[in-house]
DNA sequence: TTGTATGCGTTATCAG
DNA sequence: CTGATAACGCATACAA
């Protein structure tokens, strides 16, 4: 591999001049510039990025954390972030935490070892105090997930409102027995707020809150199936169910349909995200403006890196929209 | 940030010894090792990966190319690759080509500039001769897509067979007018072979091949909807359609259902991949062993990097399975 | 406008 | 078993 030295030698110039040409610095004669370019061409030279990283203390790489990329909500987010980063000349490293506290912490080392310029977290598994120390090593931006204690740029949606809108919709359809199902993460403000929105809507309508109708640990289609069976087995069954993701809702819908339940008559279902499959099965759902939050978060990150901005709290809040379909 | 020098000073030892401890080299007294570890701990030291990359000429990073991460087929592949890479201590850089020749070429620079140790391609947009020169800069492995001219490790499925199985299944259900729809990429051996499998099955059954029933440029749910309308508008309609992806099949299914067509009576549909939504809508499909090819490809890549194996042709072929559901 | 010298933080070589 | 020194490839302060 040709180095900058080789180019310099061939062009009969100094490394410095070559470096100036590479980095588009001023004060280089057109004549010499031509010489350098020709030599680079001839040697098929390309700057070594490891050397450049070391020298500039910059990696032009950003890590994005997601629980798992196969969740359409997150893959959509990553698609947008990846394209946006690429446009701005940044690489994107994908970190899948698999809902594991350990894995999340392990990946945080990337920032510490200077493998990336910054981190975007779309979910948080650990308590904020576990994550906070890493701010000493570089910027962190929250996207989707949020946390009061985290004084960092945050692009998010008000999940109290999201859950409220959904639950409210079910109430307006005449339901009084509404189950709630979600993932389960004590460190997640997002999860906490959704639950709050649900309870708020119930309370406002003077409806009963029933512990038995709170179903947790639901992340996937498979979990949704399990939850349907749990509901079907109840003595006192709910007539509608609010879910924290379209995947779980799809699972419930599928198993219900397989058991010849009629949706929404036997059970109304509302999802969350408006993933592609929601349209397929006619699932009512709460749409989140994924493209927008992804873009804003990545923009925020790049701006922070490039202007070496100090990390401080800056909240950008966007809005939900209810997509009404056949499942309610 | 503490450097190896700082640690050495604090421990009253040389950088060399510290480095030995970090890299678990033999020939270090337990006594000194303890001293070094203590100093590292005290300074909260962590090796700088840029420096290490430069010195070792290794990045421990692998780039994975996909057309777009939101396609469940590819996100599934990336999920598995990411986890496998992580286990082995490698990072994964995500490159979305968006079906663009230009973007694919641009990303190839990653290998040239030594930002990654190797490349895994799950699709190819350019002709192989455009890509081949980059082999001078590092290993490339093919996963899913394949190419006769590419003398590199390849993990793939025999797509002639896949399409044949699917088309054959439709024929066995009594269909004689079978449409074919796919993406469109002249550089793709995969696409070519699928089409071949389709024609082979028709020919074997002595069925008519009708140009008008060949629909191209189909990648997404949206494209599927368009294709349904195209089929509905035909004078001489096919009674079944073979598609190259579950997404396209879902689009057709959705639009057909919206137009009150009965599936499979008015139109039988067969998909490809067995994506999660296939189960939801009861789509018959050809399952590809995604986890397996992803794991094998990543394994192959890491083995090549770590043993500095020369790049040569090595084909690993896996098999399909027909998943029969209600859509046929 | 150009060149010289230095350092970014490691690890490998070699001598002791 | 340990340490001094060079080298990885580049960009920048400073001198000319």
From TrEMBL, chains A, B:
Keyword GTP-binding in record: no
Taxonomic lineage from the root: Bacteria, Bacillati, Bacillota, Bacilli, Bacillales
Keywords from the UniProt entry: DNA-binding, Transcription, Transcription regulation
UniProt name for this protein: LacI family DNA-binding transcriptional regulator
SMART domains named among the record's database cross-references: HTH_LACI
Pfam families in the cross-refs: LacI, Peripla_BP_1
Entry's Gene Ontology molecular function annotations: DNA binding
Ranges for domain HTH lacI-type: 2-56
CDD domains per the UniProt record, alphabetical: HTH_LacI, PBP1_CcpB-like
Keyword DNA-binding: yes
């Amino acid at each position: 591999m040709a180095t900058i030295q080789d180019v310099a030698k061939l062009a009969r110039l100094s490394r410095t001049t070559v470096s100036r040409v590479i980095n588009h610095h001023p004060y280089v004669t057109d004549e010499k510039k031509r010489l350098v370019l020709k030599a680079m061409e001839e040697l098929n030279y390309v700057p070594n990025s490891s050397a450049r990283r070391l020298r500039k203390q910059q990696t032009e790489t950003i890590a994005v954390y997601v629980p798992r990329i196969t969740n359409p909500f997150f893959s959509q987010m990553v698609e947008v972030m990846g394209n946006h980063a690429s446009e701005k000349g940044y690489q994107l490293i994908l970190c899948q935490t698999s809902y594991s506290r350990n894995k999340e912490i392990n990946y945080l080392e990337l920032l510490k070892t200077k493998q990336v310029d910054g981190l975007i977290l779309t979910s948080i598994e650990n308590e904020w105090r576990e994550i906070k120390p890493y701010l000493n090593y570089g910027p962190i931006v929250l996207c989707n997930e949020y946390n009061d204690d985290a004084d960092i740029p945050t692009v998010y949606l008000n999940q109290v409102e999201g859950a409220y809108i959904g639950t409210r919709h079910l109430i307006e359809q005449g339901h009084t027995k509404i189950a709630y199902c979600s993932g389960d993460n004590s460190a997640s403000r997002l999860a906490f707020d959704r639950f709050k929105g649900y309870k708020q809507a119930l309370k406002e309508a003077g409806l009963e809150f029933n512990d038995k109708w709170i179903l947790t640990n639901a992340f996937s289609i498979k979990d949704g199936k399990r939850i349907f069976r749990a509901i079907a087995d109840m003595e006192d069954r709910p007539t509608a169910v609010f879910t924290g993701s379209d995947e779980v809702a799809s699972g419930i819908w599928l198993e219900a349909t397989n058991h010849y339940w009629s949706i929404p008559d036997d059970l109304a279902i509302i999802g969350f995200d408006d993933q592609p499959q929601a349209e397929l099965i006619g699932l009512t759902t709460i749409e989140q403006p994924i493209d927008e939050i992804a873009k804003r978060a990545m923009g925020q990150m790049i701006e922070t890196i490039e202007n070496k901005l100090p990390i401080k709290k800056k909240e950008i809040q966007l809005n939900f929209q209810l997509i009404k379909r056949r499942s309610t």
